[in-house]
Amino acid sequence: MGSAGHEIRAACRTLAAGADGADDQAPGLPGGRGRVASDGVSPREIALADDLRALAALDAPSYTYACELAAPGADRHSAEAWARAVFEDAPAALRRLIVTGWIAGLGLRLAPRGSPEHVLGWTILSNEPRVIVLAVGSPILAARIVVRARAGDVVHATFVRYERSLARPLWLVAAPIHARVIPHLLGRAGARLAAT
After folding, report:
1. Does residue 121 register a pLDDT over 50?
2. In degrees, to the nearest 5, what angle opens at C-alpha 69 toward C-alphas 66 and 72?
3. Is 24 a member of any domain?
4. Are 14 and 94 within 8 A, CB to CB?
5. Does position 10 have pLDDT exceeding 60, yes or no?
6. Chain centre to alpha carbon of residue 175
7. What percent of the chain has pLDDT over 90?
8. So what's the pLDDT on residue 41?
9. Domain total for the chain?
């Protein structure tokens, strides 16, 4: 197995151990683990607000998930900065694992990574200072991510619509991983951005 394979396996072990090896408790999150931000607050799963659904502009989503990080002064950074911190500033091995899952597992058609018009391969559909909407698709599903930064919190919301019957069983495997990784990465982004 090559170096990348070892890094991906190590990332899987780290994620299974609680992302940073710690057993950070985050109420309401699957598995009871999340990433504690620098102020000691963990991201938490929240009910999806109607305004976020409208921003996603994805009719009849089959799956939705949202988590929130209480972060005083979150609006000091743009929603784009938050989205980039969540995905592009993730540890390299975990980032490779995520991208591999998106491409090989879900067949997502990612755009070039490192482009200013994309966030880790997701197309920027809308970009305002407080809200960014990202989109990606595959032959079997369509997905949107909405990141909203306000004075006291940042919300990361995911919307997935199955386009083919194969999407459902694939997403049933991906969803628990998603619900564990996103809070971890959001908390990590909070700690990073709080330092800037």
Report:
1. yes
2. 140
3. no
4. yes
5. no
6. 11
7. 73
8. 62
9. 1
Range of the domain at 145: 3-17+39-194
Could you tell me the two tokens for 92? 């390299």
- On whether residue 140 sits in a domain, the answer given is yes
Nearest to 137 by CA among 127, 153, 125, 129: 125
pTM for the model:
0.81
Q: Is residue 28 part of a domain?
A: no
Mean pLDDT of 34-57: 78
Tell me whether strands 131-137 and 141-149 are parallel, antiparallel or unpaired: antiparallel
Maximal C-alpha separation, the chain: 46
In a domain, 131, yes or no: yes
**DSSP symbols for 3-71:** HHHHHHHHHHHHHHTTSSSS--B-TTSGGGB-PPPTTSPPPEE-PPPHHHHHHHT-SS-SEEEEEEEE-
Residue 23 backbone zone (phi > 0: left; psi -120 to 50: alpha; other: beta): beta
Angle at 184 between CA 112 and CA 157, to 5 degrees: 65
pLDDT band at 9 (very low <50, low <70, confident <90, very high): very low
